[in-house]
Structures are given as C-alpha cells and as structure tokens.
Amino acid sequence: MSKNKMIIMLIGIVTLLLAACGNQSGSRNPASLTLNEGDNPATSKQASYKKLFQRSLFLGDSITEGLSYHDVLNEENVLAGAGKTAQFALEDVEELVKRKPEYIFIQLGSDDILWPTDNPKEYSLSYYAQLIDEIAGKLPDAAITLLSVTPVTAEAESSEPRYLNIGEYNEGVKELAAEKQVGFFDLSPIVADHTELYDTDGIHFQAEYYPILLDFLKDKLGYGINTK
Predict the structure, then answer these.
(1) Quick one: residue 139, left, alpha or beta (phi over 0 = left, psi -120 to 50 = alpha)?
(2) Where in this chain does the record put each SGNH hydrolase-type esterase domain (predicted)?
(3) What are 165-196's pLDDT values in tens digits?
(4) How far apart are CA 121 and CA 115, in angstroms?
(5) How many structural domains does the chain have?
(6) Domain check: are 28 and 111 in the same one?
C-alpha cells in the first residue's frame, strides 16, 4: 500500500471516529442533566411549604427563627429572633402589620420564663395579652394561633431548672388563647415523637423538625395542599 493511500485511510478512520463521538454526545439532551426544582422531591416539598404558608407569618424567638434560618420558609414569613419575649415582640407589631399576613402564628415564652422577675409567667402573659390585642386591633381579619413553648431535654432542665416551668407556662398560654378567642396548638406531642431532632443544646431543633411542625399545622388547619 502506497504512503498516500495509507494517509487517506487514516484520515477516513479518524473522521468516522469523530463522527461517532459527535452522534453519541448529540443523543444526550443537555437539558436532561439539569435538575429542575420539581425533579428533586426535597426541593419540591420545600417549595410547597413556602407556597402553602405564603400568606402566613410566624412571630417568635430563636426556636421560631429556625423556620427561615433553615430555609424552610421565606424570611418575609418569619419575624423572630434570639431573646425575643412577649414584651419585646410588641416592637414588631408595626412590621408585622406591614406584611399583612392572613394567618399569624405566635410562639413565645422560651425566653420569657427565664426573665429575672418575681413572677415571669404573670409578667410575660400580661405583655402577651397586649400583643394579641394590638395585632387583632390592626389586623382584625387575620387568624391568630398561639403555639406552646416546646419542651426541652432532661439535660437542659438540669442545666436550667427554670425550664421545669414550661408546662405551667403553656397552661397560661392556653387560657390566654381561650380568653382572647384565638387558636392554640400544643406542640409537645410532635416533639415527643421526634426527640432525635433536638439540637445539641437540648432546646433548639435541627432543620428536619420544621417540616414536621408545618405538616402538623397544615393538618390541624386543614390546608388544602399536599406537601408530600
């Protein structure tokens, strides 16, 4: 075989190989490698919670803040922060009203029971009552629901004995809800069923707790959207 024929044959083989590789690459749609929000069950469920509670606002302390911190809900649906008490929450009423929520969930008390006063429960609930009155007065059509203070672990109670008063405080919140004719949900059952979701301090919760909380509220309120 002449040198020229051999070169022509090699060029032909290389051309065929390149064409084959090109066809193989072309058979895969690049778009199929892109993960859309709906293709990821976790992301899709997270988006469902944000949609479901887009007309809601959660007011509370650092435990409530976990909803936005862990990106379970959007920040505009959460008005919370570390150290928040019923007294300090009064400062948030103006901002809360600006957001015009239709459903308001309030979870306060975890910091209130630690307040350095002779009767933290009585002191806190007096401000809690004022908070409800102010919100209801400015947003009369909004549905207000009080959430109980979540229990802490035995270790956390041992480190801070004032947490032993959580049960008594929650009874006060329940009575206040009845007095003000607003909703009240006791969260202790879902915490008892998921003790593995406590954070290391035995007070706060890991990210996985918050979808469970929202499922609980969804079922209680009969929201008509499936997040599963």
Answers:
(1) beta
(2) 58-210
(3) 999 999 999 999 999 999 999 999 999 999 99
(4) 9
(5) 2
(6) no
> Residue 23 is encoded by which pair of tokens?
């066809």
Q: Record the tokens describing residue 13, joined without a space.
A: 């083989």
Other beta carbons less than 10 A from residue 3's beta carbon? 7
Q: What is the DSSP letter of 111?
A: T
For residue 130, give the nearest of 187, 98, 92, 83 by alpha carbon. Answer: 92
SS3 state at 39:
helix
151 secondary structure, DSSP code: P
The whole domain housing 168 covers 38-221
Q: What is the DSSP letter of 205?
A: B
Q: Report pLDDT digits (tens) over 9-46.
A: 444 433 433 333 333 333 222 222 222 344 455 566 77
CA 216 to chain centre: 12
